[in-house]
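Incident log entry.

Two folding requests arrived from the same account within the same minute. Monitoring flagged them as a possible duplicate submission, but the sequences differ. Recording both here for audit purposes.

Request one:
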Amino acid sequence: MSIMNSFPLYILVIAGLLFVFALCLVTLKQARQRALELGLSKEEIMGVIKSSALFSIVPSLSVVVGLFSLQAVLGVPWSWYRLSVIGSVSYELIAADMAAIGAGYDSLAALVEVNDPNVAGAVMLAMSLGIIGGVVGCLLLGKSIQTGMASYRAKSGAWGALVMSCFVMALMAVFVPARSIFTGTIATLTLITSALITMAHRWIIKKYKVKWLSNFVMADALILGMVSAVFWNYLIG
């Protein structure tokens, strides 16, 4: 943990985040210039910027919650970097856990308990290469996959929509059982609680037409799910 919270790692992470922030500013400038060329007024552009900022900040509450859980096992700077640039709590933990298992430990938790400094680099490398593979794959194959699926959905109608839904469900079926159901009773109850919280949000949004609440679904499910985990652990742990 002294490596994962070291000053040099903080400096490297801050440098990387500043570089990404600079790219965002360049993209914003180019997008604004293009919008002016297309005939949009400065007031309209500013309205879009304000609304986009609002709807970006509110959902990021769930990312902050994820940061607290991730930094407990991977330190602050690296967790900050992974969740700020690209990545998610579940994927990052899976990659880190696989690196720990590959190093001979039963799990990431076992590695953290032993506090082996020799595996820190392997964990960071596994997380980085894992997420980079997805980005490169999107760059090379994303357009053809997207156009192919859109064409199939247009030709197949409802059947095409069903196939896409089944594909998403298949992805969830791979991750959810391994990470939540088979890790213990408390994890299963926490998963069920989070699912019920999500369903309750969706019902309220549909029933009372409060669309703004959709921005808080993930954040509320994460926060209340973590609270329920403490409750279930106290009750049956």
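Request two (distinct sequence, not a duplicate):
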Amino acid sequence: MTIQHRTVDIEAAAKLWRDDLPASQIAKRFGVSRNVIVGLAFRNRSLFPWRGDAGKKTRAPGQAKTMRPRNQEPELKREPEIPATAYDAERLQSAKLLHHLSARECCWPLNTGGPYLFCAEETTGRYCRNHHARSLPKKYEGKA
């Protein structure tokens, strides 16, 4: 017998549900899957009363679940600040905000903390000649 969405079948399933039969056993009686019964119960809540947490497994008292320690996020290493030079101090006179820069102006930040001001020197690339040289890593001058 397959369950059809007729009132007789739904009412019969609801009676078994009220008799505290599990959804899987009700499903076996009708020859359908447990999900069909759960779906019927969900759609017809007036006929299938809520059972609370009766079907859930309970833990014995004192059997607390221990928490595993979470992996801590690695600390990000801060880049060393590039100290300002006399050139930067001179450029502060004509510095601009980022949204005021054109494509051919140096976008090297001159200050820390907002509002950020940028060099704005005429250039062919991203940085002016002075700031481009400062952006490159220093060559190691160690003994060989």
